[in-house]
């Protein structure tokens, strides 16, 4: 197996506009404000968590939330200038942290220059083919003298016709600039589940010519991930199936749900995605904060043991390492994308969860079996699961107990000798055929067998 950085990275996800406290609406008449430098103050914290890759949500000039791009070549004035981003990424790289940006290529803002030209010139616009389904024989719900395709019924987000070579070249030129000027390491493709596959193939081929180990990860919520994760398309996708399975298995006292997904997706014999490295998370900028989703905050601890032990790469959404809460309100995502202050967080929240995540990150980074290993289920009960990860002779057994009770498990493992619990810093001596292990409530074990 080729060793590549993105298969061995602990990711941290920041939504910059919210994180930096930027105004919700952009004012194109204002001078840039270098709010993005706030990230530099968080670098020691990121390193304490073991983070070595940062995924930054949209930060190019946009109308409001960042997913309504106005200019792919210019950093949003609410965050700073192109030099601001260049300096931030340079400092992150100096601290051993790679940087992945949000690539929002399915749609743009109505303030995007080509759409403004289409509005002004109509049939005479040279950009009419840059957008999906433009029809001058009808009108749009927003009063345009033409209709057009958009993202998911949102006509404030005109859809791009990615089969058009000119808009594709416009985007590829922007990515070239992002690599050459900012030295980014990869892209997360917004709504990859509706992106044109030919465009993604062109993007994959192109990106490898400008940076050999460039990482492309797609946001895919539903569908067979193998349609996207292929050598000629993407390196990874979001793992929404396990996201849902992890939290609901805990809330429902039904570990069989996540066990079913893990076995179906990753088992060594016939797992659908056993050869893929998916992007794992317990919350992000589009869903409620995990501390609000769980029915009991105590579940945060077994949940994160799961996150750092199932196949794939783990990601932490900013603030959730403290158990920050947040529930979406109506059509607003501002509550789950807040402006957070590092000093206030350290004062207001216990460090227990943050310390556990730091410990788990350190274990994950130092254990090839967890980062790269095969998956095999050992045992599953309503509130417990045990599985093995193995790679090149290294074997690790993970046990998770989501009940409040301390329990003892007798696992069907044929092993005799010493085992070391790298989570709890304990050593066991298995001298007979019974593999009997005590596990504390709302906790787990990560046992190194060899």
TrEMBL record:
Residues 13-371 form the Glycosyl hydrolase family 13 catalytic domain. InterPro entries: GH, GH13_cat_dom, Glyco_hydro_b. GO terms for biological process: carbohydrate metabolic process. Pfam families: Alpha-amylase. Keywords: Glycosidase, Hydrolase. GO terms for molecular function: hydrolase activity, acting on glycosyl bonds. The keyword Magnesium does not apply. It comes from the Bacteria. This is Alpha-amylase. It comes from Thiospirochaeta perfilievii.
């Amino acid at each position: 197996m080729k060793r590549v950085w993105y298969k061995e990275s602990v990711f941290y996800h920041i939504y910059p506009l919210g994180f930096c406290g930027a105004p919700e609406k952009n004012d194109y008449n204002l001078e840039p404000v270098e709010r993005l430098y706030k990230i530099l103050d968080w670098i020691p914290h990121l390193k304490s968590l073991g983070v070595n890759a940062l995924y930054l949500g949209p930060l190019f000039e946009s109308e409001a939330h960042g997913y309504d791009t106005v200019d792919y070549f210019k950093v949003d004035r609410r965050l700073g200038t192109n030099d601001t981003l260049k300096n931030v990424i340079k400092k992150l790289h100096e601290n051993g942290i790679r940087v992945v940006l949000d690539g929002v290529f399915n749609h743009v803002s109505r303030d995007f220059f080509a759409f403004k030209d289409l509005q002004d010139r109509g049939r005479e616009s040279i950009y009419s083919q840059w957008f999906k389904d433009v029809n001058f024989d009808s009108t749009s719900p927003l009063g345009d003298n033409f209709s057009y395709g958009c993202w998911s019924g949102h006509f404030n987000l005109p859809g791009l016709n990615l089969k058009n070579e000119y808009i594709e070249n416009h985007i590829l030129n922007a990515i070239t600039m992002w690599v050459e000027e900012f030295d980014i390491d990869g892209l997360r493709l917004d709504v990859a589940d509706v992106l044109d596959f030919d465009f993604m193939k062109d993007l994959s081929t192109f990106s490898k010519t400008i940076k050999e180990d460039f990482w492309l990860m797609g946001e895919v919520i539903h569908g067979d991930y193998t349609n996207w994760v292929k050598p000629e398309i993407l390196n990874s996708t979001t793992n929404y199936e396990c996201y849902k399975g992890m939290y609901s298995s805990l809330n429902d006292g039904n570990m069989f749900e996540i066990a079913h997904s893990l076995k179906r997706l990753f088992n060594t014999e016939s797992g659908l995605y056993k050869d893929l490295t998916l992007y794992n998370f317990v919350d992000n900028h589009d869903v409620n904060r995990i501390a609000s989703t769980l029915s009991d905050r105590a579940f945060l601890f077994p949940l994160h043991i799961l996150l750092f032990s199932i196949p794939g790469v783990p990601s932490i959404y900013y603030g959730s390492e403290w158990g920050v809460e947040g529930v979406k309100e109506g059509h607003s995502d501002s509550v789950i994308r807040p402006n957070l202050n590092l000093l206030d967080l350290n004062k207001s929240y216990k460090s227990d969860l943050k310390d556990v995540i730091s410990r788990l990150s350190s274990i994950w980074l130092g254990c090839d079996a967890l980062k790269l290993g095969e998956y095999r289920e050992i045992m599953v009960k309503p509130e417990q699961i045990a599985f093995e990860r193995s790679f090149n002779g290294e074997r690790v057994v993970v046990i998770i107990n989501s009940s409040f009770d301390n329990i003892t498990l007798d696992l069907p493992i044929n092993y005799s000798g010493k085992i070391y619990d790298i989570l709890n810093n304990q050593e066991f001596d298995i001298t007979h055929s019974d593999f009997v292990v005590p596990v504390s409530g709302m906790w787990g074990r990560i046992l190194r067998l060899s």
